[in-house]
Amino acid sequence: MAKSFHFLYWPRDLEERVLELLELRKKAGLLLDNEQRPLIIWEPAPLSCNKKQLSSLFSALKVVDVCSPNHLELLRLFGEQPSSPFSRAQVEDLARRIFDSGVGPRRTGTVVIRAGEHGAMTLNPHDGICHWIPPYYGSSLSPAEGESQSSGVVDATGAGNAFLGAYAIGYLKTGDIKEAACYGSVAASFVLEQRGMPRRKATDGQEKWNDSDVHDRLNTYLEQVFMSTHRR
Prior knowledge:
Layout: E1 4-7, H1 11-27, E2 39-42, H2 54-60, E3 66-67, H3 71-77, H4 88-100, E4 110-114, E5 120-123, E6 130-133, H5 159-174, H6 177-192, E7 200-203, E8 206-209, H7 214-231
Parallel strand pairs: 1-2, 2-3, 3-4
Antiparallel strand pairs: 4-5, 5-6, 7-8
Helix pairs in contact: 1-2, 5-6, 6-7
C-alpha cells in the first residue's frame, strides 16, 4: 500500500485527482483516518503559478499535506519580482500567506519552498516557525570528506522531484519536517552531479550512487545541519 503520492498538477486538476485517489482507496477497504490517509505532496505545475490561479491554489490546499513550489514560482503566484540580493524574508512572508490559508483537510499541513542555491525553507505547522536548511552543495557546511562544495553541480534538471520524493521518505520515517527536508537536499545532491541519472553500483551488498554511500552522506549532512542550527 502506497504511503505517499507526489502530484504535479494545476490546482483544479489536483483536487479531482486526489479525490479520485481517496475514493479508490476507500473502495479498496482502506479507511481514510489519520493513520491510513497517504501523505499527499503537491508541486504546483509551473505554468499555474500566477496571480490568476491564486484563489484556485488556496482551494486546492485543503486536499494536500504539503505544498511545495520553488521560490520563483512562489513569487509569481503573488505577482512579485525576486529581490536582489536574495531575501529570505520575502520568501517567508509569501509562504506564510499560503500556510495561513489552510493546508490539509485539518489545516495541519505545511509549506516547503525549494530555493535552489539558497537552500530550502520549511514551515512548522505546530509553531508557525520558518526553518532554512542549506543546499548540500554551495553552502558553508562542509559536504562529506573529500567532496567539493560547488564543483559537484552539473545539471539541476530533476533535482526538485528528487527532493520531494526523498522528503516523503524522510517524513514518513521520522515525522520531522526539517529532517525530511534534509533527506530531500541529499537526494537532490546526487541528481545535481551529472546530466541524466546518477550511477548506481552495488559491491559486496553495499549500494553506492556516484561512488558515494547515501547513508553516509545523509548522516554527515544531518549532523552538520542540526549542529549549525544549535550553534545559532
